[in-house]
Amino acid sequence: MKKSILWSLALLMMMLVMASPDAAAVQLDVNGRNYDTSGQANIQDSITMAPLDVLADTLGCTITQEGTKITLQENQDVLQMTIGSLAATLNGQEKAMPAAPLLKDGKAYVPIRFVYESFGASVDWQDAKQCISVSYAETRNGMTADELITKSSQKMNEANRYKMTADAEMDMAASAPGDKQTPENMKIKMDTHIEGWLQANPILMYMKQDAEVVPTADSTPQQGPQSVQTEILFNDSGMYMTIPETGWVKMNMPGLNIQELMKQSNSQDPAAAMQQMKELGMSVSFANDQERNGQKYWVINAAMGGDIFKSDYYKQMTKASGLEQIPDMQKLFDNMDADIKYSAWINQNTLYMDYMSMDSRMKIKMDIPDAENNSPVNMDMAMQADYTMSDYGLPFSVPDVSKAVDFETIVNQKK
User: Fold this and answer.
1) Per-residue pLDDT tens for 341-356?
2) At CA 355, angle to CA 350 and CA 359, rounded to 5?
3) Residue ranges covered by each domain of the chain
4) CATH class of the region 24-30+32-135
């Protein structure tokens, strides 16, 4: 397996912006939406226990743990508890828990019903489904988290244009057989700065990306650090990209409908887009309100798993855009596991999304046919990124790509 295959898979993953024998696993339903606990929520001695990160994702509370002391804060409400103790305090008032928090596999587990009800949620148990059902009617300015995201998206679409800057860090490990069936490993760390301008209608996106790629010492073959500068332009004619020593290239890859892909991802009605994201299994909740640079923000957390790549909606999108024509594309999606979380900071005055952060983990394990047999490929990529959006409604200029070279021309010249 050539290293170029590993790089192609890594690029695709980046573009597609990761039980115990004595406990029974249970499902978790929050406000009618199934939440993937990956088997971590379980019943012990008739009490449902869950790790702290499950509560952080669904309640949006801030959690700190210092030794055996655990503190959960949901805006003005503060719940404190201790590993191994039934005693707890809510806003300074003592409360008794049905089960003591415990440590398992390095994680702190707490009684889930007690925590939800302490913050005002209603909790029911569905025995037939082995599911704990949570109703949590948290709002900001009379809007649920779903409604606020929809409203913010509408405001951003009305502005039509905005500027985005981002800083991202990626750690990736990949392995595949080499030409002589010896393992070929690629372990890299990549730091990227992105400056981009986006327009919803008509579709227009221009990005400048500076990346520093640093392979680790055990990568094969050995390579030194590389600095990569790239410009990318999407418009109603397609996708353009700069290539060193060539300049602007039109990426008219056979079968790939760039315009349709952009429409599917960027030009949907906000309410329809939110409904589709719900169907994909996205979990949405309010985090604690924040203040930054003198401005107040509502913060929304969202999370989704690998089911997004196996959903009917995603299959329809890949079919419409032509992605399904890429060899082994569906096999790639079927073997991809993902854990994607992000936080959106929505300006309380303008309702624009001014900041966003993303934390994702993606894994792939699959066989890719080569000339002789199937070559197993394993990839593990972790990525963290912080975004800032500004200049809403302001016009921007883009480079002239009228003399861009066709991608096929470059390929034919190298044959």
Assistant:
1) 888 999 999 999 999 9
2) 145
3) 24-30+32-135, 143-413
4) alpha beta
